[in-house]
Amino acid sequence: MNILLIVFLFFLPSGVYAASLDRIVAVVELQDTPMDKAAEKPQIITQSDVEELSKPLLLRLRQSGEAVDPEKIWANSLDELILRALRTQKAAQLNVAVEQKDVDALVSQVEKENHLPMGALPKALAEQGINFEQYKQGLKDKLLQGRLISRVIHPLVTVSEEEIQELYTSVRQKPQSEEIHLGQILLQVKGDAANELAERVHQQAELLVAKLRAGSSLETLAGQYSNDASGLSGGDMGWFKRGELLPDLEKVVFDRDKGAVVGPLRSAQGFHIFKILDKRTSNQKAASRSKIKVRHILIKVAPDASEGESLAARAKVQEIAQALAQHPPAEQGAAFAEQAQRYSQDGTAKDGGDLGWVSEGLMVPSFEAAAFALAVGETSGPVRTPFGWHLIRVDEKQFLDPDSLEAQRKELTERVQEAKTRALYRQWLRDLRERSFVELR
């Protein structure tokens, strides 16, 4: 059940069991609160918070016999807790929240993925020495981070056609699906830092590279020196496919052999040192995909609409569907376009509801599931989406070569988005700290 331990290590909470007489080591207060909104209360980080976060890594390193400087790991743990506190305050400012039912659903998912009976997770965690309440708090923090990224970071990320084409060309050059398991040490330094500072950090990075190549443990060095959250899990970043790293980093590390140490590599975050922990390939063929030429009729329902308003919109869609059913099959395409021009409440109405050619993965899930289940010439029943109630008609369908760009576009786009999101999120957190008040005691 490694998944349980991995999630726990990354998202250990602060302040869950801090004793009331704990020594306060930091006070953290977000400073970019709008004038028309009350500031969030400062968050306190205690000595026991830091010790709790640093304990798993220290324990593993001591058991391995590695020489370790606890103060450096303690300092990195404190830095991570400061960033988490600011993230929590920013989420509260933006009204981004996680409810208990969301955490309970994730607990159920973890049990299912680990083939555990319902309600068996607390005992399974206890056998690994993990407190269930702390674990749930960690899951809540994970969910909050994801929602904050969706709210703040995703709208800033764009993927160009050129980037998709470049990744497709790179992937096509390899007959097998490749993945690398990466370890990292990140020494943070701003892109506009003074030359003297950047050179000092670069020299430190060179020393760490030499130690790794001489046989020193990545886990030990990352835990003490890395300015990335992965340092607290020994530098383990997990598995990556092509496209999930920034291009300047990927082109250097992806073709190196298992065990290779790569770096230092400069990015906007600082100097990266990578170790190729493992590599794997798969001959699995891409799944067959299709695209459809589709029309729709939309009767809008506002997000805050009452149940009665939603039922009225559905009834209108059902009325249109019944009118369409009166036409012979050969006339239904033209009739659908005419009804869309008359009733549809979106910008496609003037074109008879024509959405053009649509590939899988580009529409909201409920719309896509209904549309791709239709045969050519078939019209759906009422379909609910976040926008309202739809009728959907498929005019044409084409099956795509699974190796084609069009078939792989969605996955390739997501990989580029992930790489950009990860880098932008790190920078956003650091910028947030620079704009905030942190008192170290």
Shape: globular
Our measurement of the CA-to-CA distance between the termini, rounded to an integer number of angstroms, reads: 39 Å
Strand order of the largest sheet: 4-3-6-5
Instruction: Determine the mean pLDDT.
Output: 85
Q: Evaluate the radius of gyration.
A: 26 Å
The fraction of residues assigned to DSSP E strands is: 15-25%
Number of strands: 11
The CATH topology label of the largest domain is Triger factor/SurA peptide-binding fold
Query: Count of DSSP helices?
Result: 14
User: How many domains make up the 3D coordinates?
Assistant: 3
The CATH homologous superfamily of the largest domain is termed Porin chaperone SurA, peptide-binding domain
Low-confidence residue ranges: 1-20
Protein described:
- Helix 2 crosses helix 3 (about 70-95) and helix 7 packs across helix 14.
- The protein folds into three domains: about 1-155, Orthogonal Bundle (Triger factor/SurA peptide-binding fold), CATH 1.10.4030; about 175-285 and about 425-440, Chitinase A, domain 3 (Roll), CATH 3.10.50; about 290-400, Chitinase A, domain 3.
- It has 14 helices and eleven strands.
- It starts with a helix and ends with a strand.
- It is globular and about 80 Å long.
- Helix content is about 45%, strand content about 20%.
- With about 450 residues, the chain is of the alpha+beta class.
- Mean pLDDT is about 85; it is low at about 1-20.
